[in-house]
Amino acid sequence: MPRRIITPRGPSLSRRSLLVATGATLATPTIVRAQGGAAWPNRPIRVILPYGVGGATDIHMRLIAPKLSEILGQPVVVENRVGSGGVVGSNMVARSAPDGYTLLCAAISAVSLAPHLYKDLPYNPFTDLTAITPTIYVPLTLAITKVGWNVSTAAQLIEIMKANPGKYHFGSNGVGTTSHLAGANFVQSNGIQAVHVPYRGGAQVYAALISGEIQFSHEVAGTLKPMHEAGTIRCLFVASEKRSPVLPDVPSMTEAGLPPYRAYSWFGLFGPAGMDRAVVTRIAQATDQAMMHPDIRPRLEGMDGTLMRNYTPERFAQYVREEHDAWGPLIAASGARVE
Predict the structure, then answer these.
(1) pLDDT digits (tens, 9 = 90+) for 204-257
(2) Which residue, of 74, 152, 260, 266, is most buried by count of CB atoms within 10 Å of its CB?
């Protein structure tokens, strides 16, 4: 099945800048000149992941990084800095030198959602970070444990939870993450009660699902697929209007008869405020080349990821703001807050 590529309205990168990488382009890294004439890149680049190992943000960036290194001609080192739902790592990048050697790979939660959740957020995503380029958009899938009950449909899950308010638990990758907010939105929209249990990354959530420590969680289809197919967990539905090609046997939210609610994530690259425009543009171009490479694109799409292409840095910054404004009322209604 052909995969859709999200293309924004508004200005886009030039056709030349979005050429898919060929063997020749990969073999000849392009050096750009930042203001002052310094060549970039001339040393390794760090990409900070503000989440734990094994989650979708981590997995997809580790797919992209080796090819990005080839294109740029310098090592691209991925480093996990976990804490406070992405705040610790994001703040680290916001306080770094804007030289293009320290980047942030963040999900929507750390940039568009965090200002609604944290009373004293130590960085301003709109003034302390440079939006460079988005990578992929992923709908979330609600998965349940198979331990301690016999639930096979969304209707059964809701019925059992309504009969036992507050007895069951849902997990997330941390307070304020999209898996947390998706769970809160699901609970609220269906009139049920459940206790939120935050973890430090996707790997811990999956272990908790398998063991029955939690009863459900919203995660990315591609990471859930091996466990679903092995029978250690059950995916109940994909939180979108259509089925996922990654989990063709799992119904959509619409097929499950559920009221619609927001349950998705997207990822992107950011840097500190004040980065040189030539460096920002080069990172965006190289990231697009890496994602479109025939060795990488199918693996990103295998995560149920839709490539987000043709975003200029300005359009991406606008999108981050639009998502902030769209999620604000939902977060307020859910009561989610981090003191």
Answers:
(1) 999 999 999 999 999 999 999 999 999 999 999 999 999 999 999 999 999 999
(2) 266
CATH code given to domain 16-138+265-334: 3.40.190.150
> Residues of 111-133 as b/e, b for ≥16 C-beta within 10 angstroms?
bbbbbbbbeebebebeebbbbbb
Q: What is the dihedral sign for C-alpha 2, 248, 294, 291? A: positive
Exposure letters 85-101 (e unless 16+ CB within 10 A, then b): bbbebbbbbbebebbbb
Contacts of 125 (CB under 8 A, 6+ apart): 90, 110, 111, 112, 114, 115, 320, 324
Residue with tokens 């130590």: 122
Instruction: Using CA atoms of 64, 275, 115, 324 in order, give the dihedral in degrees to the nearest 10.
Output: -70
Predicted pLDDT at 58:
93
Helix residue ranges per DSSP H, the chain:
23-27, 56-72, 87-94, 108, 114-117, 154-163, 178-189, 202-211, 221-230, 277-292, 297-301, 313-334
At 6-49, the pLDDT tens digits run 545 433 333 333 333 333 334 445 666 665 557 999 999 999 99
DSSP string, 240-263: SSS--TTSTTSPBTTTTTPPP---
Domains 16-138+265-334 and 139-238 share a fold: yes
**Tokens standing for 90?**
């994001």
What are the structure tokens assigned to 189, written together? 């929209």
Whole-Å CA distances, 244 to 72, 154, 239, 251, 253: 33, 17, 9, 8, 11
The whole-model pTM stands at 0.82
Domains of the chain, residue spans: 16-138+265-334, 139-238
Q: Look at residues 316, 220, 321, 219 and name the one whose alpha carbon lies nearest to residue 268.
A: 316
Name the nearest CA neighbour of 144 among 234, 230, 218: 234
Do 316 and 131 meet the contact criterion of CB atoms below 8 Å apart?
Answer: yes
Residue 179 CA: distances (Å) to CA of 46, 172, 183, 239:
26, 5, 6, 12
- Which residue in 101, 92, 83, 112 sits closest to 39, CA to CA? 101
For the structural domain made of 139-238, what CATH number should be given?
Answer: 3.40.190.10
pLDDT at residue 299 in the model: 95
